Each structure stands twice: as structure tokens, then as C-alpha cells.
Amino acid sequence: MVHILRRMTAVLALVAMLGFAATAFAADAKGKIKTVSADKNEFVIADADGKNWTMMAGPTAKFTLNDKEAKLADLQADDEVTVTYEKDGDKLVASNIRATRK
Predict the structure, then answer these.
(1) What is the DSSP string of the chain?
(2) pTM of the predicted model over 0.70
(3) What ranges do the domains of the chain cover?
């Protein structure tokens, strides 16, 4: 009986670890576009504290500019953005980019 409990504990621990590793937590960042490198599929935003965030556009990322469908190349410096992203290792991968331009 003890042998079975040890196996079950190991299996449950492994399942829990895999579940936590597979779960990605989305977060939001707000700021202004500093640079856009559409050819590299990345952009840099500066938040309210002046911190720069380099982000990659995910393969299924959705872009809007003034509430209209857009693409990364449409974004420009000083556009206000709200970005939903997930951390993938040391990279920030954006899935939803909402930009406004005055």
C-alpha cells in the first residue's frame, strides 16, 4: 500500500508541475510606442515610468489603431498603446495591441 501511495504522490507532483508550466499568465502594459521594427516583428514601448519594454508580436497577434484593424507596420512612435502579453522565457510576446493616435 505504501508503494502505491509513493507512486501516486510522484505522479500527482509531476502532473501539477506540468500544469503550472503550461499555464501562461497574460498581463497588460500601457505606454507609448518608441520604435517599430516590422521586419523583425518587434516594437518597443515606454511606460509611464520611462521604462522601455521590447516586445515581439505573437504569430496570431491582433492590432487595432483608433479602433480599426491594423498591422504592426501601421504603428508609429508616440502612439498610445495597451498591450496584452505573455512572458516566454526572457521574451515578451504580445497577443493584443490596442493603439490610439491623436
Answers:
(1) -HHHHHHHHHHHHHHHHHHHHH---EEEEEEEEEEEEGGGTEEEEE-TTS-EEEEEEEEEEEEEETTEEE-GGG--TT-EEEEEEEEETTEEEEEEEEEE--
(2) yes
(3) 25-100
